[in-house]
Amino acid sequence: MIHDFDPAIAVTPVGAIYWYGAVYSIGFLGIFLWFWIRRGARGLTNADVFSFTILFSIGVMVGGRVFDILVYELDYYREQPLAALNWWEGGMASHGVLLGGLIATAIFARMRGLSLIAMLDEVAVPAVFLLAVGRLGNFIEGGVIGSTTSMPWGFVYPDLEGARHPVALYESAKNFLILPILVLAIWKWPPGRGVVASLFIFLYAGLRFLVDLFRDYEAAWLGIGTGQVFNLLMAVAGLILLIRTLRSPRQSESPPQPAPKSPSWLQIVVLIALILYPLGIPTSWTRANITEKRQGSLEEARIEPRLGTLYRG
């Protein structure tokens, strides 16, 4: 199969709307809707739901961008640091998305005097949904690619040698599989013990490590794909936390019941702006950088067989 998807949904007078960016918008809506439905269980007002979604969205966007620049594309941005501001050129990292969401959740919990563990248990469900739809965006934009394969479902990319595993689809399916598990877990272990958050970390990272064995990482660290290092660390941490939380006798905490409070017009406008903001992000890698990397890899793949023939001759 040929990977020839148009990364743009449509082109408007103010710029293109991209599939990759759209999945962040869908994910942010998922965060909002989950907490809107669960606001009573978490002791949140209507205004709180808007505030949390705003803070979480900002954390995801900033975390994903900064992590990508510092970990995956530092060489590229070291030569042109001002390009870091060009969000419309692409460049987001899923581990940074997780870190940014964690920091945002911690800030919100502290501001509202809520249990951080309970908030992390709660946010795990919509977070895995965001990550699941995010990988669908990765597949369409072609930024996350698999290793070469002879399987009939392999995809051929115009700038890469050989058919590739659709590893982004594998991971999207994995995340969608985790989603009902976390929904069941949140009913069995109500937020506050840390079981759901620990289960999320362990399942997400552990299964991702297995899925990423079929991935062709275009950045490496410590001799393996950069993301695999973080997958291993997260999986181990998640397993340790899961064992500890399951053994802990700690009971779930009842959240406070605040007086009703409606969101302000400013909150509504800011949230709408943040949901629309990602639509202009085209790719998970900066487009100019990934094009340069793949052109170099393609040239090497074409030269090596010729060198081998000359050597044998």
Q: Secondary structure elements and their pairing?
A:
Blueprint lengths: L7 E5 L2 E4 H19 L1 H4 L3 H27 L1 H6 L14 H19 L3 H26 L13 E2 L6 E2 L2 H22 L6 H17 L8 E2 L2 E2 H22 L17 H12 L10 H26 L1
In short:
The protein is mainly alpha-helical and 313 residues long. 64% of the residues lie in helices and 5% in strands.
Commentary on this structure:
There is one protein chain. The chain is built from eleven helices and six strands. A two-stranded antiparallel ribbon has the order 1-2. It has a two-stranded antiparallel sheet with strand order 3-4. It has a two-stranded antiparallel ribbon with strand order 5-6. The chain has one domain (23-312). It has 313 residues and is mainly α. Residues 303-313 have low confidence and may be disordered.
Task: Summarize this structure as a short list of keywords or feature phrases.
313 residues; 6 strands; single chain; 11 helices; two-stranded antiparallel sheet; disordered C terminus; mainly alpha
